[in-house]
Amino acid sequence: ASYKVGYFVGSLSSTSINRELSKALIRLAPDDLEFTEIPIRDLPLYSPDYDTNYPPEGLALKEAISRSQAILFVTPEYNRSIPGALKNAIDWASRPWGRNSFDHVPVAVVGASIGDIRTALSQQSLRAVLSFCNTRQMTSPEAYIKFTPDLFPGNGEVTDKTTEDFLATYMQEFRDHIVRVLTVLPR
Length: 187
Ligand code: FNR
Known about the structure:
alpha/beta, 6-stranded parallel sheet, 6 strands, globular, binds ligand FNR
C-alpha cells in the first residue's frame, strides 16, 4: 500500500526556501508516501459570505485535502507567526461550519528560516490552529531548519549528512504516525 500525502508550502515567494525544504523532504521520504502539493496562491481572502457558494479555488482546496490521507505543512515564519496566505487556506478548509476538512487528518509541521529562531514560533502558532481544527498531529520529532544556500544547494539536495539523516528520520517518523492514525481512523 502507499499513502497519499498532500502538502502545503506556506510561502508565495518565487525563491521560497520552504519550497526547497519541501523538495528535500519529498526526496528523503519513504517510497510508500506519494506527495501532491495543495496550492494556496489563488484563494481569495476567506469570508463567511462564501459559505453558501464556495468558489472553484475553495472547492478545489477542500477536495485536495479529502483526497489526501495525510497533510504536511512546510512553512516560513512571518512576524513570529503563520504567514497570512497559509492561515487563509486553513480558514477556507475549516469551513463551512460542520464541514471541517481537517477533522482527524494526520498532519506534520516543519519549517525553514534564515534566522536563528528557525520557525519555532510559527510552528507553535500553526500547531495551536491545527489543534483546534482537530487534526492528529505528529508531536515528535519536531524539525526547525536553519536554511543556508550551502546546506540546500537546489533540487532537494542536502550537503550535510547529519541534516540529511535527520530529515529522512523525520519523514520515516511521519510515515509511522500516518500508519498509526489510519489504523484507527481510516480515510
Ligand atoms: C520574515 N522572516 C522571518 N524569519 C523568522 O525567522 N521569523 C520571523 O518572524 C520572520 N518574519 C518575516 C516576516 C516577513 C513579512 C518576511 C517576508 C520574512 C524571514 C524569513 O525567514 C525569510 O524571508 C524566509 O526566506 C521565508 O521563507 P520562504 O518564503 O523563503 O519560504
